[in-house]
């Protein structure tokens, strides 16, 4: 009998490198502190638009804002924490548009009404992003920097859950798992289309919005016309 050869010990896995801290160190409590806090965000957005993600640094922000590094580090541990806050605010502005366009009345209406609402939402999201200081660069940072993915994914998931609950109320006969998937995919389609509009300009914005809204409205129409399994 041939003795078995002992297996070589598996190489220990290297521990994952911890990402940069994204938590703010403190919230401004007084007016002067709040003004400094907002100045940091404003100058970071301007600097990001000027030099891009890679060249952005807290030292450059301090230099442009006329602040000492300790003044910045009182609130933010690094540039990623500032970008996180900028990203969080942008996503909130974008998400606030949704209830104005996607309502129960729209979803129970004809397919054309749903399509118009979705198209309006996409165009409005594009507008708000464009009007936000460094909105395009903030959007790119949320996609390009792994440490910042959290704010984007959490925001998209929150919106998807909200939309799924609305769809469930409008289409009680539909499968809830399917509605969750439809909601999540729809959110990703709209935001991906907005990113594409910035990356591939010049491009017909309205044509892109029309195609995306047609795709989502078509699937929602299919759900609406499905037989009521509860009957």
Keyword list:
11 helices, mainly alpha, disordered N terminus, elongated
Structure description:
With 231 residues, the chain is an all-alpha fold. 70% of the residues lie in helices and 0% in strands. The longest helix has 25 residues, at 31-55.
Residue ranges: pLDDT <50 for 5 or more in a row? 1-16
Could you spell the SSE succession in H and E letters?
HHHHHHHHHHH
User: How much β-strand is present in the residues?
Assistant: under 5%
Structural class: mainly alpha
Biggest sheet architecture:
none
What would the principal axes of the Cα set say about the shape?
elongated
In DSSP terms, counting alpha (H) and pi (I) runs of 4 or more, how many helices? 11
Report the mean per-residue pLDDT as an integer. 89
Terminal Cα span? 69 Å
Helix content: 55-70%
As a whole number of angstroms, the C-alpha radius of gyration is 23 Å
Instruction: Write down how many β-strands occur, each being a DSSP E stretch of 2 or more residues.
Output: 0
Short description:
Helix content is 70%, strand content 0%. With 231 residues, the protein is mainly α.
Q: Which SSEs are present, and which pair or pack?
A:
Blueprint: H1 31-55, H2 58-65, H3 69-73, H4 79-95, H5 98-101, H6 104-107, H7 111-131, H8 135-144, H9 149-170, H10 176-199, H11 205-225
Helix pairs in contact: 1-2, 1-4, 1-8, 4-7, 4-8, 4-9, 7-10, 7-11, 9-10, 10-11
